[in-house]
Amino acid sequence: MSKNGENRQDGSINAAREDETKEEGNAKHDVFTVEKRSQIMSRVRSTGNASTELKLIAEFKERKITGWRRNSKIFGRPDFVFPKLRVAVFVDGCFWHGHDCRNTKPKDNADYWRAKIERNQRRDRAATERLQELGYLVVRIWECDFKKKHRDRLDEKLTPIAEAFARRRAADEAANEKNV
Ligand SMILES: [Zn+2]
After folding, report:
1. How many angstroms does the Cα of residue 3 sit away from the middle of ligand 1?
2. Which of 47, 79, 114, 174 is 20 to 30 Å from 145 by CA-CA measure?
3. From ligand 1's centre to the CA of 144, what distance in Å?
4. Does a structural domain hold residue 19?
């Protein structure tokens, strides 16, 4: 499943590049129409994110972590929020959020992509800072953290959530016992 999402994402970008090459053959340098570009982008965005979010839910379940909310409207719109734990989790696509793991940096229209990615990165930093000011533990997970070889990186990021959850549950249980 993981491979699918990634392949599709790469596929979209590669497909885009093929188009560019073709047009270069026709001695045209500027490539996508705005429409085509936004088509490609929305495809990348939706497939990339949905599958990694599902993978993350599986990881939460494996760790018996519950209580997340999705589509939260709090600042920066984290992908997952644990209101009781005050934890905000972002799942960031490596391409769109400029992770340095990517070796496929588009050469064509480099300025266009770079500007777009840098804007996302600024937005990401602002969201992290703001949420931390509001007392949130902010966890940012890269799409590539789900790869088998990065297993411990993912573990490291999820452990604080699991611990916060365990502390909270222990506190709840203690409070319940007092009330009995
Ligand atoms: Zn990455």
Report:
1. 14
2. 114
3. 4
4. no
> Does 29 reside within a domain?
no
Q: Are 104 and 10 in contact (CB under 8 A)?
A: yes
Q: pLDDT tens digits, residue range 74-118?
A: 999 999 999 999 999 999 999 999 998 976 677 788 899 999 999
Ligand 1 centroid, distance to 44 Cα (angstroms): 15
CA of 153 from ligand 1 middle (Å) equals 11
Domain that holds residue 131: 48-179
Burial 74-110 (b: 16+ CB within 10 A, else e): ebbebbbbbeebebbbbbbbbbbbbbeebeeebebbe
Is residue 148 included in any domain, yes or no? yes
Q: Is residue 14 part of a domain?
A: no
Number of domains in the chain: 1
CA–CA distance, 67 with 80 (Å, rounded to integer):
10
Query: For residue 7, how far is its CA from the centre of ligand 1 (angstroms)?
Result: 14
Cα radius of gyration rounded to whole Å, the chain: 20
**How remote is the CA of residue 29 from the centroid of ligand 1, in Å?**
30
- How far, in Å, CA of 14 to CA of 8, rounded? 10
Q: Residue 122 pLDDT > 90, yes or no? A: yes
Provide the CATH number for the domain around residue 81. 3.40.960.10
Q: How far is the CA of 13 from the centre of ligand 1 (A)?
A: 16
Predicted TM-score (pTM) of the model is: 0.71
